[in-house]
Amino acid sequence: MDYYIHKEDVSNYPLIVFNGVIHLIETKKDVIKYCEIISQSDVVGFDTETKPAFQKGVSYSISLLQLSVRDSVFLFRIDKVGLMKEIVDILSNPNIEKVGIDIKNDISGLKKIKLFEPYNFIDLNSLALKCGFKSIGAVKLSIMLLGYRISKTQRLSDWSSNQLTDSQKKYAAIDAWICPKILDVLRKKFRSYFE
Question: Which DSSP helix (H) or strand (E) runs through 125?
């Protein structure tokens, strides 16, 4: 089977709706509290957001780290709390699967803030290619495996802004939340790749 979706077909699919809980984490106390909750999970959705640079040679540090556990998403304002030890412990924990899409830049961006050894990360793009998919990326994988599209309207918004809008929070939450769901479907459909 050819797992492919045409760009012009994307808008035919319904938008995914997130009705879970979003925790915005802007204090060190909250980092400690929520990392304790996250570290009890064995599968965590993963993504980051960075303020877009519209000039050549200009780049910014990661502003936001999103981690999801089931229907809760934790938005860490990295530009406010830094990459604390409690967060690094999760990213380095070999017993927690961190699931994301095209995660190479996310990891190298986080390592620029603080050096750490990432363990047990699963890149859904690489996995989908191994399973024979021709289309990859968050939007297309979400359509092909979950039947819904995700909105990308907030992608180029200012993630370093002092206050994040509700639209930004929802967008950021969905990006991490869908990853374990996509992995779940891949595991069911392509069992032989995981044995």
Answer: helix 124-130
d(CA 122, CA 157): 26
- Hey, what CATH class is 7-190 in? alpha beta
Average pLDDT over residues 160-172: 94
Burial zone of 153 (CB within 10 Å; 0-12 exposed, 13-18 middle, 19+ buried): exposed
Q: Which of 42, 61, 119, 114 is nearest to 85 (CA)?
A: 114
Calculate mean pLDDT across residues 42-70: 91
Global confidence as pTM = 0.93
Domain ranges of the chain: 7-190
- The yes-or-no verdict on residue 111 having pLDDT over 80 is yes
Q: What is the dihedral of CA 103, 43, 193, 47, to 10 degrees?
A: -20
